[in-house]
Design brief:
single chain; alpha+beta; 6-stranded antiparallel β-sheet; 19 helices; 6 strands; elongated
Length: 633
């Protein structure tokens, strides 16, 4: 049961980085969250104790979101440092695989995942509830905190209020100016006061403002004096005056009971318990709406009382329908019947729309509980997924520090955030299923984590730019040019006569090939995709040509070196079929759009081969005389 020294070394490397990156990620997330409530917290003169409580609850709520990003960044930097300093190479040279190196960190990350779940299930709901309760209590108990110092506050309907200074200990306001609009723009009231005190009414919808030592100025325009140029006004000087102002703090639309009913403020056990009650309540309301909809009936055409009993009996017996009944009526009765029916339909439509909106809100509330229940597991699982992305990536790129790892971590987290946020919103609105919306980020990143882990364990090259460049050049039919330079040290000159004879023989092979293979003709698609076979003649020509070019590259003659660079690099099989493996050609041929692309790509290679063979022949015709001349010396 002894812990290996290597494991202790790996844990130290990861642990120090994890704590550092965790606090960085926590700070970034808290600053992002703070922007949502910056108006409620900043510039309101809150005490340090209250601000500390806000940040404490905020930090507890955001810790589960900081864990995955911290694991991703710390694991990437840790294994990037090990790779950059060749310590990872030494570990592998000692016979220890990469998965064995991951073993202690996997255990630690699983423990962090459990801690993340605990915070989401126990600590997070309590912190969420306490955060919003604190926010509500501050607004209800101290409404003067809503009004900032030194600027006009327009959050009160029909009024602008200016406070020069506030005393948070006593609740007194100093230097008060109130600008009220009581009617039109001409009917304004300006209130000045040396000091005052503000209190919230019991229903939390109004403010009782007690003013001391002030004046009241107000225009007195009335209907009778609407066209008069002289507008009377009144001026009042008071020592004490009380004013009632409309005030809605924004969050007091929901009381503490509603805040506690939020799914984010509930544990998993509480959510599962409430889901049954919510579903039963929704079903009962939906069934009552269904019964109401069944009772919707449209009024029959208006008739006299003497005919009403007879009409009802005929309708019940099925001897007459509504159209026949409608045709019996007079023109005025028909018009009244249409208006009555239209009114009934409009009323029923409005009623159904209102009930539909209410039913949508009920189902959204139910889905929100489901989303929060699933999120507790997916967010914990993301810690493990991010480790299997960050650690293998660090071992592959072998770059430590805060440069490349930070960039890669941000890109991976952005992809995760887009998938997770999109899935959450679409599932909450009912456009996606709940399970699909909440697991799409996990499903999208799990194959990526498995791919990087496999590649890192096999020491495969993933971020080799030249490898991807070569692949896309082959797919698009691009090729590089030949670059042959004069050798600095030449021990023995090439056999010019032998090389000249080989080039002459290659020209004869090219002539024979061009006569028997019509490269400019359209090949049979059946042969291309469903028959196997390589062009052995072109492969032979290419091999002999490359050997001759290699021999002649040791020449000192500048003309031959220049002409050697004119030889093209031949593609030996792309002009016959798209791929070397038969099954890939068959699949490509069955997929019609893909098959058409590769068929025309093959035609392009046939045309290019036709031009390359002509270039080889002409270049050889220029090199052969010079080679023979050098051989005779």
């Amino acid at each position: 049961m002894r812990i290996k020294k290597l494991y202790i070394f790996i844990i130290k490397q990861f642990g120090l980085l994890f704590f550092g990156t965790f606090f960085i990620c926590q700070f970034v997330l808290m600053m992002q969250f703070l922007w949502r409530y910056v108006d409620e917290l900043i510039g309101k003169g809150l005490s340090l104790e209250v601000m500390a409580q806000f940040f404490w609850y905020m930090g507890l709520m955001l810790m589960p979101q900081a864990f995955p990003l911290a694991i991703l960044l710390s694991s990437l930097i840790a294994f990037g440092n090990l790779g950059e300093s060749s310590e990872l190479t030494a570990i592998k040279a000692a016979g220890i695989s990469l998965m064995q190196t991951f073993r202690p960190l996997i255990v630690i990350v699983m423990l962090i995942s459990c801690i993340s779940y605990y915070f989401q299930d126990v600590v997070g709901p309590r912190a969420n509830l306490s955060f919003y309760q604190l926010l509500l209590s501050v607004k209800h108990k101290s409404p003067e905190l809503e009004i900032p110092e030194g600027i006009f506050y327009d959050g009160l309907p029909g009024s602008n209020i200016y406070v020069q200074k506030k005393d948070l200990n006593t609740g007194m306001l100093y230097g008060i100016m109130i600008y009220r609009q009581t009617g039109s723009y001409e009917d304004q009231a300006i209130i000045l006061a040396d000091s005052g005190r503000m209190q919230s009414t019991e229903e939390k919808k109004h403010l009782l403002l007690t003013l001391y030592s002030g004046e009241w100025f107000e225009n007195m325009r009335s209907q009778d004096l609407a066209n008069s140029a002289n507008i009377p006004y009144r001026r009042e000087t008071f020592s004490t005056k009380r004013i009632v102002l409309d005030f809605d703090s924004g969050l007091n639309m929901t009381d503490l009971a509603d805040v506690s009913g939020d799914a984010r403020a509930k544990s998993l056990t509480k959510i599962l318990h409430d889901l049954d009650s919510i579903k039963q309540n929704n079903d009962s309301i939906g069934y009552s709406f269904y019964l109401d909809a069944k009772r919707y009936t449209f009024r029959a055409p208006i008739v006299s009382e003497s005919d009403s009993t007879k009409i009802v009996e005929e309708l019940a017996a099925g001897n007459i329908n509504h159209d026949t009944l409608y045709e019996r009526q007079s023109a005025s009765d028909k018009q009244m019947a249409v208006k009555s029916a239209l009114s009934s339909v409009q009323s029923a439509k409005t009623d159904i729309e209102i009930k539909a909106d209410y039913a949508h809100s009920l189902h959204r509330y139910y889905r929100h509980h489901q989303l929060e229940a699933i999120k507790k597991f997916t967010l914990s699982l993301s810690c493990l997924i991010f480790f299997f992305i960050g650690a293998p990536l660090g071992a592959i790129i072998r770059k430590g520090g805060l440069g490349v790892p930070v960039i890669i971590s941000v890109l991976v987290f952005i992809v995760y955030y887009i998938f997770d946020n999109t899935g959450f919103r679409m599932a909450r609105e009912g456009q996606w299923t709940v399970w699909f919306g909440m697991t799409i980020s996990t499903v999208a990143l799990t194959p990526i984590a498995a791919f990087f882990t496999y590649k890192a364990n096999k020491d495969s090259v993933v971020f080799n730019i030249d490898l991807y460049k070569s692949f896309f050049m082959r797919v698009l039919g691009l090729r590089s040019k030949r670059h042959i330079y004069r050798k600095e040290v030449i021990i023995e000159d090439p056999d010019y006569q032998k090389d000249a004879d080989i080039l002459a023989d290659i020209n004869r092979q090219i002539t024979h090939y061009s006569e028997h293979h019509k490269l400019l003709h359209w090949p049979n698609p059946i042969v291309v995709f469903f028959h196997a076979g390589d062009d052995q003649e072109i492969e032979t020509i290419s091999e002999r040509l490359e050997e001759t070019i290699e021999n002649l590259s040791y020449t000192k003659d500048k003309l031959i070196l220049t002409e050697l660079n004119q030889y093209p690099i031949l593609a030996t099989h792309a002009h016959t079929r798209p791929f070397r493996k038969k099954w890939m050609n068959i699949v490509t041929g069955l997929l019609l759009p893909v098959g058409i692309f590769f068929y025309f790509r093959m035609l392009r290679f046939r045309l290019r081969l036709y031009k390359d063979l002509r270039t080889i022949r002409h270049t050889s015709e220029r090199i052969i005389p010079k080679a023979v001349e050098l051989a005779d010396r």
